[in-house]
Structure formats: structure tokens, C-alpha cells
Design brief:
heterodimer, A: alpha/beta, B: 425 residues, 2 domains, 5-stranded parallel beta sheet, globular
């Protein structure tokens, strides 16, 4: 599996309240959530996002609430993966569980700017900055997590094994 | 090698003699909890896996976030979990108007107790560490799986040991201590880790102080916060619960990534400025700077909506009037606490001093309803998060503080020192 897209870049501590504010949580319809994703951090996000684009951020991405609505909104909006220095633990778990690939790689975060074209290969963990011609190595997903992402999440993965 | 208190609880629930940090294990769960935001989303996922919950005594769905129902969609969500709870015959059937905020009601009803392994689809599930239990927040898919199977997988966390010594001064409580700690280690200072609180200073911390401290472990990125079980814990458990419980202690040779000593006597009333819980300032720094005028005060939430919080706020407000330009919401966290406030005369103090005295709800804390701010407004809140837009408009500002600081600020109209009982206007 490969992700390929332009980068939208943010800073430290992007919390789940700005990814999807609580005022929209009276719904868990994925498309409705996606239409508001990141609005309190960057109101231009939804308009600028093209399917396959990649979010890059600094430390502690996804901190705060346990709302799985947050990774679901990013995924449904068309974000192909998030690369950050580190992730808050509940967000990390929720992302994997819904088959949304996220990678920790501080070197890549430092070497990628807003608007760069980036390609990520999940089997190997290789992150290529196509704009700058540089390459970074993140930890590759172990096979069971690759399968979970390919199955579009934990539930499908578990059901497929039955 | 020895184990931390958290590691011992996890090992026991995985049926293992010992575990080490980083190990992936599968644990049996004692309580699986969700609310009216995460619960409805979990139900269709649950139904893909099972028809019946794994144990009707151990699954609890609490309507508390958008309740009393704020709009039609919220009403549907609350309806869905209430119907599910009844259909499944859940022992702890929670109906709005009869319960309260999840992390206050579960300990109060004795649904959670010492030594347990608890997951909740709410990040503040770490609160139950005050009882000497392992509690951690998870998302919807994990909670649906837990409801169906009674199990969850965990990566065994490493830990930071906080050795608390000394006695906090009169107007310093659990909130000041945890804001001080997050200010010191940062909002990701305990990322993926346990925060274990020990030391002879903990005898000076009430159970409510400990709930407040563990509640905000997540605000430092922690997987859980936990206190050892002492006589106070046992007294609390015996008063509230008939469940069997188990007392775990960290091994003497347990390995910690970091040991941090904190003299509670040195901690000052502390306020977290926008937009991070780690942006801590002491009341002395605040008094030495330009006054921060406020529009709203919220006293409540799963962090500080317990009876001792109500008593502390009332003691400051008694016989006084809140600032004419400030609106104040006092929100006891459960119906029982609400009634205690009436019986002890606290409700009268709140209303006579000019506060709204509201029904239990998470609404104000998360900008859901019952306390939303518009552009440019500022709030002192006893809740747990001051992120951008958390309580309303992205240009509103939240200052996190103790009930004492919140009450003093309500009187003064600006962030004020409770040691001076509402300032000297």
C-alpha cells in the first residue's frame, strides 16, 4: 500500500477538539464529520484538501478526547496518512482500529514542508519527499497491522478471520 | 525485576505471573463504559461482533455529555443507549436525571473498585486510579470489542513515580497539584506511561483530591494515573461498594523511567492559561501581572464536580455576591451530590450569591451546551481542557483552576487568589 499526496503541515499538540469540535459530535455520520474536520485549527483545510493528501505535524498529535470521530473524520475527508513526531495514545489506537495509517518519524517531519509532494510505502516504512528528493525511514507496520489497514479496520479484520 | 502497581494489575488480568514494559498482553475487563457520544457510535460496531454483551454486570452506558438532551440528534443518541441498556438487561441501567457524570457516578455507585481493569470510551477513564484501579480511555472500536468480548489488548506501560511529600496549604487541592505537575512535565510528559503517585504526602489528600489528580493524567499524555490503596481508600470503598476488591502494591524493586519528588507544601494555587493544560502559572505570578477579567465561571465536571469541590466553592461564596458582569454555573457531578448540596445548604449559598445551580452534565466542559462561550469571552473553569474552541468559539479563552480559585474569581470578576477570599475590590 502506498500513500501519495501533497502535505498540509501543522505544529505541536493538535488536539481532537480542533480536529472535530464537540459541537459536531451529536452525529457520528462519517461524511458529516469529515465536512467539519480541522475547522477550529484551519478553516481552509477541507477546501484545500485533495484525496490522498498527507497531514504532517509535530509532537503529541491527537491529544485530548477519546473521540474516534477524529481519525474517522480525517480518513473520510480523504487524508491518506498522518506523519508526526509522536501521537497521543488513544488517537494512535483509534487510528489503527479504523484502518487509518499513521507514522511516527521526527526526521521526516523536520524534512517536509507545507505543500511538498510526499509518498509513503507502508510495507517498508519509507517516506519519500518527492519535491525535495529526500527519503526517510519510519518503522514499518508489522504484517498484522498492514492487514488490518488493508481490511479497513479491526472489525473487518476480525470478521474476515472468522 | 519488580513490577509497578499498574503492571501488577495488568499482569493479574492477563493471567500472567509477570509482565514487562512494552509487552503486548490481552486483559480481562472488569468494567466497560461508554457515554452518549461514544456509546451510540459503538452499537453498530458491537452488533457486527455479538448479540449480547459479555456480562450485563460489567457494561455501563452513561448519558451525560449532551444531556439533558440538547437537540433532536442528541436525544436520538441518548435514546439509543437507553434502549440498548434496557434490552440487554444491564444491571447498572443509567437514565438521565437519575445518574450523573460518568467518572463521578461509577465510583459513587461502587461500580468500580480497587484492583480492577477498566476501559471507558472517554479519555478521563483514568480517574479510577484514585481507587487503586487501572482505568484507561479508549475509542469506539475498542469499547465495542470490549462490550462483546470482555477483553482488550494493551501494551504494558512504563511509569513515572511521583513521590509526594509534605502537606498542602489550606487553599491548595488536587487540582493545583495536577496542574503544577502537568506544567512541570508538559502535556506529553507522560505519553504512553503510567503516573504512579506515592509518598507520605498522600495521606493529606482526600479521595476527591485523588480523583482530580488521576482524572487529569491524560492531560499529561498518561495512559493511567494511580494511587496506592490506604485506609482512606478502604473507607471509601466500604462506604460505596459491596464488590470484591483486590489491593495491589508496587514491588520495591519496580523500575521507573523517572522519579519526581514534589513537596506539596510548596505548591501554590495554580492556573493553566489558554490553550494547554500544561501552561501553568501560580496565583502569585497572576497577582503580579495585569488583571485577567472574566465573563464566565464553571464549577463542576468529572475533574471537580464532587462534594468537597462544592463545599470549597460554597465556603468562599457564602454571604457574598458574584461580580455583576460574571455568569457562574455550578454543576454538581451527580444527583447524590446535588442533593447533598441542598441538604448542606450549599445550593442556597450558590443561588443567593448569584450562581446558576445546574443539573449534572458534561455540557459546559466540552462546549456542548449549558455554558457555551462566544467570541472574545473568558472563563475560569474547574474542568480539564482549555484547548482552542473547547468551550465554544475559537476566540474564547479558558483558564483551568481549582474550585477555590474559580469561586474567588467569580466574586472578583478577574482571576483572583482564594487566600484573599475574592480579592479586595
Amino acid at each position: 500500500m502506498i500513500a501519495n499526496g501533497k502535505v498540509l503541515k501543522y505544529g505541536d499538540n493538535v488536539d481532537t477538539d480542533v480536529i472535530i469540535p464537540a459541537r459536531y459530535l451529536n452525529s457520528f455520520d462519517a461524511k458529516e464529520l469529515a465536512s467539519h474536520v480541522m475547522v477550529d485549527l484551519d478553516p481552509t483545510f477541507v477546501d484545500r484538501l485533495e484525496p490522498g493528501d498527507i497531514v504532517v505535524a509535530k509532537s503529541n498529535f491527537g491529544c485530548g478526547s477519546s473521540r474516534e470521530h477524529a481519525p474517522l473524520a480525517l480518513k473520510t475527508a480523504g487524508v491518506s496518512c498522518v506523519i508526526a513526531n509522536s501521537f497521543a495514545r488513544i488517537f494512535y489506537r483509534n487510528s489503527i482500529n479504523i484502518g487509518f495509517p499513521i507514522l511516527e518519524c521526527p526526521e521526516a517531519v523536520a524534512g517536509i514542508d507545507e505543500g511538498d509532494k510526499v509518498e509513503v510505502e507502508f510495507e517498508t516504512g519509507v517516506i519519500k519527499n518527492l519535491t525535495k528528493g529526500t527519503s526517510f525511514q519510519a518503522q514499518a507496520f508489522p504484517p498484522f497491522l498492514q492487514k488490518m489497514i488493508e481490511a479497513n479496520g479491526l472489525v473487518n479484520y476480525v470478521n474476515a478471520k472468522k | 525485576m519488580g513490577m509497578t502497581m499498574t503492571q501488577k494489575i495488568l499482569a493479574a488480568h492477563a493471567g500472567l505471573d509477570s509482565v514487562v514494559a512494552g509487552q503486548l498482553i490481552e486483559c480481562n475487563l472488569d468494567v466497560v463504559m461508554a457515554n452518549d457520544i461514544t456509546g451510540p457510535m459503538a452499537l453498530p460496531i458491537f452488533r457486527q461482533m455479538a448479540d449480547k454483551v459479555f456480562d450485563k454486570d460489567k457494561v455501563v452506558l452513561v448519558p451525560d455529555h449532551f444531556t439533558p438532551n440538547k437537540d433532536i440528534k442528541s436525544a436520538q443518541n441518548a435514546r439509543d443507549i437507553q434502549d440498548f441498556s434496557r434490552e440487554q438487561g444491564l444491571t447498572h441501567h443509567m437514565v438521565q436525571g437519575k445518574c450523573g457524570v460518568e467518572h463521578a457516578i461509577l465510583p459513587e455507585r461502587g461500580i468500580v473498585t480497587a484492583g480492577e481493569c477498566i476501559i471507558g470510551a472517554d479519555s478521563h477513564t483514568c480517574s479510577y486510579g484514585a481507587l487503586g484501579a487501572f482505568g484507561t480511555g479508549v475509542g469506539t472500536t475498542d469499547i465495542a470489542t470490549g462490550m462483546a468480548t470482555g477483553q482488550a489488548w494493551f501494551k504494558v506501560p512504563s511509569a513515572i513515580k511521583f513521590v509526594l511529600t509534605g502537606k498542602p496549604s489550606q487553599y491548595v487541592s488536587g487540582k493545583d497539584i495536577i496542574l503544577h505537575i502537568i506544567g512541570m512535565i508538559g502535556v506529553d510528559g507522560a505519553l504512553y506511561k503510567s503516573m504512579e503517585f506515592v509518598g507520605d504526602g498522600i495521606e493529606h489528600l482526600t479521595m476527591d483530591d485523588r480523583f482530580t489528580i488521576c482524572n487529569m493524567a491524560i492531560e499529561a499524555g498518561g495512559k493511567n494515573g494511580i494511587f496506592p490503596v490506604d485506609q482512606q481508600t478502604l473507607d471509601y470503598i466500604h462506604e460505596h461498594s459491596t464488590k470484591p476488591y483486590q489491593v495491589f502494591e508496587a514491588d520495591e524493586d519496580a523500575e521507573y523511567e523517572q522519579v519526581i519528588e514534589i513537596d506539596l507544601a510548596q505548591i501554590r494555587p495554580t492556573v493553566a492559561f489558554p490553550h494547554l493544560p500544561g501552561n501553568a502559572h501560580t496565583i502569585d505570578e497572576i497577582e503580579a501581572s495585569e488583571k485577567i477579567y472574566i465573563d464566565q465561571v464553571v464549577i463542576g465536571s468529572c475533574t471537580n464536580g464532587r462534594i468537597s469541590d462544592m463545599r470549597k466553592a460554597a465556603a468562599i461564596l457564602k454571604g457574598k455576591t458574584v461580580h455583576p458582569e460574571v455568569r457562574v454555573m455550578v454543576i454538581p457531578a451527580t444527583q447524590k451530590i446535588f442533593l447533598q448540596c441542598m441538604e448542606e445548604g450549599l445550593a442556597q449559598i450558590f443561588v443567593e450569591s448569584g450562581c446558576a445551580f445546574n443539573t449534572p452534565s458534561c455540557g459546559a466542559c466540552m462546549g456542548g451546551h449549558m455554558g457555551v462561550m462566544c467570541k472574545g469571552e473568558k472563563c475560569v473553569s474547574t474542568s480539564n481542557r482549555n484547548f482552542v474552541g473547547r468551550m465554544g468559539d475559537v476566540e474564547s479563552l479558558i483558564y483551568l483552576a481549582s474550585p477555590e480559585v474559580a469561586a474567588a474569581s467569580a466574586l472578583a470578576g478577574y482571576i483572583a487568589n482564594p487566600e484573599k477570599i475574592g480579592g479586595e475590590e
